[in-house]
Amino acid sequence: MDVNGRGTCNSTTPSDEEMDLRRGPWTVEEDVTLMNYIANHGEGRWNSLARCAGLKRTGKSCRLRWLNYLRPDVRRGNITLEEQLLILELHSRWGNRWSKIAQHLPGRTDNEIKNYWRTRVQKHAKQLKCDVNSKQFKDTMRYLWMPRLVERIQAAAASNGPSSGGSTASTTTHLLNSNNPNLPTGHVILPPTGIGSNFGGAQVNHPSYTPENSSTAASSDSYGTHVSPVSDLTDNYSNIPVNYNTNNPDYFQAGQVGYSDSLISPSGYYNPAMDFQSMEMNNQWLDGGADASDNLWNVDDIWFLQQQFTNNNI
DNA sequence: AATATTCTCAACCGCTTGTGG
DNA sequence: ACCACAAGCGGTTGAGAATAT
């Protein structure tokens, strides 16, 4: 096979029938052909690239294969805890803007992040019997899941020691810090002390969003994609005093924007369908039945949620 | 061991946006 | 301003793998 695109490329556009276009999984030969062609000619102009390379594929298919699989800087393997945290955080800002989120996770593709969200995050929402786009679930992510991830990252860092690579406390801090180049500017989340939100009577200052970014988060994008109404959490609450009194003080710092809305706010976000009895029945939540990397909540978390829900539902 | 069910992820599809004539 | 085409994006599907029964 001439991997150099046969020298001169026929510029006519044969029909699909003439091309006898292939579909489905790529073969090793096709991968090699595509990689060699791009190595010699660069990427772009995907339709003509496919034709000139002698690939019986659509340009779209070639582009996707290259971007999601063959590109040398594509990172494969499990999503790390830090990456999970970043995905959750960025999704809370931008919604299903997978490509935009992927830009902040070097080597990860939008497809991979999208798959992660669907298979892991939506699975948890399903297990909780609530909608993944519900405020209830988003708050649960923000005030339980994400802090839990931070804990685990820091625990891993502590056990690995400061000199080890990968997940270190400084890495975590870096990821969460506004100086992190992977994060949008002005981004500050999960400082070490203080919790402000009214999470079950305890007010929690929203950790992640400033008034300026909340306005952008609230807007819908040009695709009409749902964007997390994060600003709903911050709007109108900037003057509410901190009144932290939960037994879970370590996750969010007072400051930034006051935030008093909650899972169980008087506005009625508590959903009785979020049934912790059933959660307990589902031992995945309690005994590690799920993959360890997914099992972000433990008995204490669930007890905490139950207490908060109970106290505020009287 | 056989079968059913669930999970994962690569690939496709349809739509929107960008660009050049 | 309009059209055609390419590129990009997010949603969805389906085959194979993994796990449960």
From TrEMBL:
Residues 157-173 have a biased composition (Low complexity). Residues 18-70, 71-121 form the Myb-like domain. GO terms for cellular component: nucleus. Residues 1-22, 157-227 are annotated as: Disordered. GO terms for molecular function: DNA-binding transcription factor activity; sequence-specific DNA binding. It is found in: Nucleus. CDD domains: SANT. Its main location: nucleus. This is Uncharacterized protein. It comes from Liquidambar formosana.
